[in-house]
Amino acid sequence: MEKTSFSPEIRPGRLLSLDLMRGYTVAFMIIVNNPGDWSHVYAPLLHADWNGLTPTDLVFPSFLFMMGCAIPFSLGGKILRGEKRSRLFWDILRRASVLLLLGWLLAVLAIAPDWEQFRFYGVLPRFAVTYLACATLFLFVRSVHFYVLTILGLVFGYSALLHWMPVPGTGFPGHDFPVMDPDANIVSWLDRKIVFWTQTHLGTGVLYKGTRDPEGFLSTIVACATVMAGIVSGLIMKQTSQQKDKRPLNQWTLGGLLAIMLSMALSAWSPFNKNMWTGSFVLFCAGSDILLLRLLWQSVDNNPGRAPGAVAKVFQEFGAAFGANALVAFLASEALAIFLDERLQFHGATAHQLIYNHLFSFIYSEKIRSLLYALLYLLVCFVPNFILYRKKIIVRI
């Protein structure tokens, strides 16, 4: 836990643009994860069932992108100060281990004492694995061109794997089964094999969708491309800040546009699909995140002399409070949901159901009622972050 001078006006060593993007992303995540009634949710607040793309599908990759973007600023400074790679690696390993254990702790909290239903995959485990891989790579390579080529290699290599890799016992994609079949593809097949091993040798292990998992093994490998897109962005932002050279910034913006255009072209071959983390999905999310971060960075970090108005300052405070301690917000929202939906029950009804039915029963529209519950939930989760923000405390792992 660290105390630092921290406000939208004076924030040494931190990017307000990144905190704002992170803060509003985690706020949106809390809203979409906690409706009052899952049967009555506006379409943009739901994930695509399979192929396709909604605003909600952009949340997870945005977090991975922002994690990557922070790496050149956090690790890069330590490398420049001459800290040994071995020491930095152990710190990377420690942080990845903490993320993994936090994810598994939430999983245990949700299923205890039914150990057989434990899920090894998950959001925080994916953060842990991709951070470990990409941050370790950053210790040895800090070339924008290298990361761009690696991203393209992962995107097209993964797309080729989905189209041409035969699946044992099932056959060839596009011949014996549709390439994007939810259960027959090589990604789902491997996840089932891994879980079969954990069930056999560890006595536990389930997949989120029963026959497949959206945070599975192969899709986590290609998710490293999303983190690398963030690393590229961080390298360019850092270079531009130090050298005052606008050309890399313009190339970065153009790269974001080209990523979106390439994703559209690739989607005809490999459709947008968050569950599979397809190449077109990687490129579209990376391009969108680049353009959004570019806009925020130009507006706040690259324009320090411009004072925000009263309304803009409120929005900045809200986003910065969530963004500075995004992990706290995530853990608090997930833990509270587990208690309200699973652990706290009264006369056969969950605490969630009681709150929802009593506080919002007077509202006629069921979708509005469901959304208002999510907004109330967001405000409750905001309280601990706001307290930390006002006390100028940033929780680090």
Structure overview:
This protein is an all-alpha fold and 397 residues long. It is 65% helix and 2% strand. The chain has a two-stranded antiparallel sheet. A two-stranded antiparallel ribbon has the order 2-3. A hairpin with a 2-residue loop joins strand 2 and strand 3. The longest helix is centred in the first third of the chain and has 27 residues.
Brief account:
This protein is mainly alpha-helical and 397 residues long. It has helices at residues 16-33, 59-80, 85-111, 123-138, 144-164, 186-201, 217-243, 246-266, 279-301, 310-324, 326-343, 351-359, 366-390, and strands at 2-3, 345-346, 349-350, 393-394. Helix content is 65%, strand content 2%.
Keywords:
disordered N terminus; 397 residues; 4 strands; 13 helices
Q: What is the number of strand segments?
A: 4
* Amino- and carboxy-terminal Cα gap: 8 Å
What is the general shape?
globular
> What low-confidence regions span 5 or more consecutive residues with pLDDT below 50?
1-12
- Class per helix and strand makeup: mainly alpha
Strands across the major sheet, in which order?
A: 1-4
Average pLDDT taken over every residue: 91
What summary fits the major beta sheet? Answer: 2 strands, antiparallel
The fraction of residues in strands falls at under 5%
